[in-house]
Structures are given as structure tokens and as C-alpha cells.
């Protein structure tokens, strides 16, 4: 979480470059943002000043909230600037806590992603000599650099500061008296971009793409020193220079426009039919995974949030279609269930960003036990992608909206294809996915009914979603979408569990969504709907057929096991419509970030 961007080079609009850079990284956090600039013509420009600027060597502007349409105030000409977009961990959402943080002299600035776990101890060691103006863990780093610079050159002071910090961190520092950017990573992602007499650094490659396709993804414990002319990479432990071969990104520049839609979420929901169809035509990916599963003794699916729900769906798909057992665990809990992982195990990690710390951590631990790591990852070149033995591209295309939608649908499509592939029925898999793509298109075309239903929900405090079998993970996913973008409490559960407690919360006019696809769970789901209705609930049925127990009905045609896809799509549009009617921004839900790079 938190987005980092930096520029050093021949141009004199570094501020604009880094400001645009953090706009592309805003998905990583949008509690506050800030830029740190070393002006080219210090005296005159600094007198003109930016709002919130210091009168020292580094000019800083910070603001609370999303970058949105914010503008910088009188940025001075500059060839060296850094910028940051924050997702708050330590310290509230205030201007003082926004990055960059300055040292006492105003000549050193630091931006940071991660958590300095021992910041309190470090702060106590320095506090009698330095004045702290924020409540963040990050600020300790800049004062420590200041302290160490009494005896050391800048880059060495940054290196030693980083070594003193514990936790997973990415640190970027600048100093008004040296023409360089010093960056170090351990855990949190950083990528450097090589240009012609100009160099770039960012939290991900997407922000660099407008300027360069030649990049190096910093490995853990690598330090980069960027000057106008070159980038040196060093091992942070030994301080020895490393020879790295930069990569050329093959991604064509992806536009991040909304394509005429009001929000990224709406645009991304509309892309889903094509994504499902494309996956229905692929064979190679499921063949590679099938081979790895056949070789393994014990396969484990891991993921977080929506990606975990895809893992859970995988267990049902593997069981019903491939007649195989597969384990599914929330990645952050995998550590407590990993005792039987060994060199014969296969871990399949599912992730959109490929940067989720809980997943990276679980994968690294499994690797130390000798397990083979496969992954289905949307962001190619991400950390998970690079540490996997068998990375499979998810193929959803850039997902900007914070809530995962098209990536989740793409993952489910891959898992359906894989389950049929394992059963030796690739053609059948392709057929149900094509049906699901068509049905998803139809659901989207007829979304008016869903939008109408949303009006019934905007004032509700709770919404329950129930289903059985493969519909159970769908209930969890629909609940997640409603919660995160409409801020209504929504709970998904296995229909059979209702009467074991949650039914106590159901009262007159509580909306309850019942998923009743045309499979062996249909009768039991209708029975659950009856029980809910007997307690006064309003029943919204999502099914292939209209049952009399439904007060409202949304049709999802039978696509076999792939019915889970259009069913979830109905839930996505419902969540979007509720959020829109409540006047909320579905692309940037409060308190969340797209890439969860802290534990
Ligand atoms: C929900 C959502 C999150 C992510 C989770 C994992 O809409 O977006 O629950 O699914 O944070 O993120 P990735 O897939 O990037 O590992």
C-alpha cells in the first residue's frame, strides 16, 4: 500500500511527472498525497513558494484526501522530485502525517511504503536530538538519515538507516545537496525505469510506462542509486554493486481511461463477457497447471479477500467436476496450516496485484519447505509473478477500481477450465464458459431490473445472501462487493447455516438474496428462502427459474457450474447500483487500497 514515484533527469518539469505518476498509483492508497521537490533555481522559485512549502532546500506540498482533480500550486522548475500517495497505518489522516517527511533542516526528504516495526525504539534513541512533527513510523527514517549524515555520505546514511529498520519496507530518500535519489526495498515493491539522461522509480511499472519500458524490479535487499545519467544497483547488506540486466516490458501502454463509463468499476464490469470468452478459448494454461497438479502430492489454493473466495469456489469445482480434493486457505492463515507442506506440495496462489503481502509471505514460507509455486496473477512482472515457478497470466487487463471484479471473474473462469481439464473434458469446459460469457452479456444488457432493486436497499442496515455448494463462495463474494462499495452490512453464508444462528437477525423486510441455480442445491436453497420468508424477509431470488417464494426475481440462465459467473455479476451490479444511489465513489471505497502490501 502507498504509492511511490520519483524522477531525476534532463527535464525541468519533474514535479508534473511525479504528480502524474502518483495519480496512476492512487489505487495503492488515497488517504493523502504529497510531493517533495528540489527546485532548479532555488532562490527565486522558493520565494514564490508552494502552499505548505518549507523555506528550506526541499519544497513540499501535501494534501489530505484523494488526488482527484487537485492541482499543484506554482511548482518550481525542477529536475528532481518524489511523490507519495498514502494509505494510513501509523498516525491518522492528517497533513502532518502525509509524506514526504522532512528532517529538521528541511534538506532531506523521505517517502515510505510499509511498516517500520521498531520505529518506537528508533524514535526513542533519537528523540532528544530531533523534532518530530508527525505520528508516523516513517518520519523516524528521515531523522536517522540526518543523524547518520553527520559522519557518512548521503547514500550510505540511507543504507545504514534501512538496515536499522525492521519490517517490510520500501524507502526513497532525496537530499537537497546531492543530485541523486536513493531507494531501497525489502518486501514492499519498487521498480526503477531507465531513460535517456533521466531515470524513474515507482511502486509499479504501470506509472513508468509513459516514459520507458526498460525497467528493473528491485529484489528484496536491493538498493538503487539514481542519478540523471544512470542507475546503480547495490546489495544493501554488503554494499557491493550488482550487475543487473534490465527487462523490457512487453506490455503495450494500457490506457486507464473510463472509456465513456461513469466509473472504472462500471467499465470493468462491462469488460467481463469478453474476458470469459477469451479464457474459454485458452488451453495451454490449464494444461500446464494440470500437469503440475498430477505431479504433486497435495495441492493448496491460497488467496486473500475475493481471491480467497475464488479459491473456495475451486474446492467445489475440483470436487464436482474433476472429482479431486484441493485445499483452500486464506493466505494470512496459511502459516498456521502449513506443517504438511513439503517438496511434493503444490501451492497455487491467486492474486490480482501479485503484491499482497499476506500471499507473498505465505508463498515464501512454502518455498523454503521446497513446495512448487504456481500462481494465477493479473499483474505480470509483479512480486508473486517473479517468485512463482509457474506463473499463469490471469488476463483480465488492468483493474483500476479498488474492488476486485473482472479479475475475480477471470480467476473463476481459469478454475472452471482447469477443473474440466483435470477431468479430461476441456471441450465441455470451453462450452460452459462460452455460455457463461453470453449469459453475463445478457445480464449486463438487462441490468435495469437490478438497478431498480437497488432502490429497495439503500436504507437497509443488513443484507443477507445465502446459497449452497458452489453458490456459497458466490454469497461471500456478493456480500463483499456490497459491503466494500455501499457500506451496508452484508453477510454471505451457506444456506444450511442460517438456522444455526444468523436467522435471529432476520426481521420484517430484511432483504435476503437467495442463490438458487439449477443444480443439486436448488431444493435446499428454496427451503431456506421459505424459512426466511416465514420470518418476514424480502426474498430476492437469483435463479434460472422464477419460484413463487421470490418477492423479486433476477434470471440467470443455467450455464452448469459456470452459472456462478453471471450470478456474481448480478451481485456486482447490485452493489454498484446501491453505491451510485448513495452517492458513493465505487472506485475508491473508504479505508481500502488496491494493493495490500502490509501485513
Ligand atoms: C475485494 C478485493 C480484495 C482483494 C484482496 C486480494 O473486492 O478487492 O478482497 O481481492 O485484497 O488482492 P489481490 O488479488 O491483489 O491479492
DSSP strand tally: 25
Please give the largest β-sheet: 8 strands, antiparallel
Q: How many angstroms separate the termini?
A: 10 Å
| Strand proportion | 15-25%
Helical content stands at: 25-40%
Instruction: Return Rg in Å.
Output: 25 Å
Q: What order do the strands of the largest sheet run in, or round the barrel if closed? A: 3-2-4-1-10-9-11-15
Strand-pairing-aware structural class: alpha/beta
Q: Give the ligands present.
A: fructose -6-phosphate
> Can you tell me the residue ranges where pLDDT is under 50 for at least 5 consecutive residues?
43-55
- Per the principal axes of the C-alpha atoms, what is the gross shape? globular
Average of pLDDT: 93
Oligomer: single chain
Count of separate DSSP helical elements: 18
Describe the fold and architecture:
This protein is an alpha/beta fold. Helix content is 35%, strand content 23%. It is built from 18 helices and 25 strands. Strands 3-2-4-1-10-9-11-15 form an 8-stranded antiparallel beta sheet. The protein has a 7-stranded antiparallel beta sheet with strand order 5-6-7-8-12-13-14, with helices on one face. It has a 5-stranded parallel beta sheet with strand order 17-16-18-19-20, with helices on both faces. Strand 21 (462-467), helix 16 and strand 22 form a beta-alpha-beta unit. The chain is globular and about 80 Å long. Mean pLDDT is 93; it is low at 43-55. Bound molecules: fructose -6-phosphate (F6R). Fructose -6-phosphate is lined by residues 304-307, 351-353, 356, 359, 403-404, 480, 484, 596.
